Amino acid sequence: MPETPLLDMQDVHKTLGGKHILQGMTLQVHRGETLVIIGRSGIGKTVTLKHMVGLMRPDRGKVFIEGRDITTLRDRDLDQIRMKFGMLFQNGALLNSLTVGENVAMPLREHERLPEEEVRRLVREKLALVELHDVEDMMPGILSGGMKKRVGLARAIVRNPEFILYDEPTAGLDPIMSNAINELIVNMKNTLGVSSVVVTHDMPSAFRIADRIAMLRKGRIIKVGTPAEFLETDDPVIKQFVYGEEEGPDEPSE
Ligand SMILES: Nc1ncnc2c1ncn2[C@@H]1O[C@H](COP(=O)(O)OP(=O)(O)O)[C@@H](O)[C@H]1O
Ligand SMILES: [Mg+2]
Fold first, then answer.
1. How many CB atoms lie within 10 A of CB 134?
2. Which residue's CA lies nearest to atom 17 of ligand 1?
3. Which of 11, 18, 153, 248 is disulfide-compatible with 61, CB 3.0–4.6 A?
C-alpha cells in the first residue's frame, strides 16, 4: 500500500469573478518533499494554495490532508488542521499596527502559552534564521519589501510547523537574499523533515529547492516531475517556460 499523501487535491474546480480558474486540478504532496508549483502570473497558483489550507473551498472536487477531506470541515475543525501549517503569504501579510516582534510572535500567542521570555527567544531565533537582527521593536511600515517578506517567513516558521506553504518567497528579493531563502527552505527539509509547497515563477529557485516540480497551465497541472525531468522535456510549452522566453500573460481559460 502506498503511503497516504500529506495533501491530495482531486479534480478541484473553482470559478472566480466569472473565470474558470481551476479546471480539474489534481495534485499530491508527499511527506518530507518540497513540491514547487510553477506557472505564469494570474494562472491560479495562489488560488491553489488557498484551497490547500481551506481558505477557499472548491466548487467541485476534494482536498484531503492526511486522508481527511477538508472541503466539508467546519471552520473550527479546519483551525485544528491549520495548526500544523506554516504559511507565507505573497505580500507577507503583516499587521501594521503591531511591531515586527509581535507579528512574528502571533502564531505562538494564538496557539501556545509560553513564558514571555521564551516567546522573545523564539522570535529572535527565527528572525536570525532569515538574517534579521534587532528589528523586533520596529514597525513593519518602515521596512523594505524584502524585509517584510522575511518577517513573514519568520512568522511562518516560528512554531516549527511540519508543513509549510510559501507563496513567492523570493519575489522582489535581490539574488543574495533569494539564495539565503532558498537555503533556508532546503535546510528545513533536510534538518527538520519539513514538507513544503512553494509557489514561484523564479525558475533558478525552483531548480535549487524542488524535489518535484508541478506546472500549472489552463487550470490544470500539465506536468509533474523532478527538476531533471523538466530540463529534459521536449514539450515546447514547458521548455519555453523553463528556459524563460517571455510571451504575453496566459489566459486561465480558453
Ligand atoms: N477572490 C477573488 N475574486 C475574484 N477573482 C479572483 C479572486 N482571487 C483570485 N482571482 C483571480 O483568479 C486568477 C488567479 O489568481 P492567482 O491565483 O492569484 O494567480 P497567481 O498564479 O498569479 O497566484 C486571477 O485572474 C485573479 O484575478
Ligand atoms: Mg499569486
1. 9
2. 44
3. 11
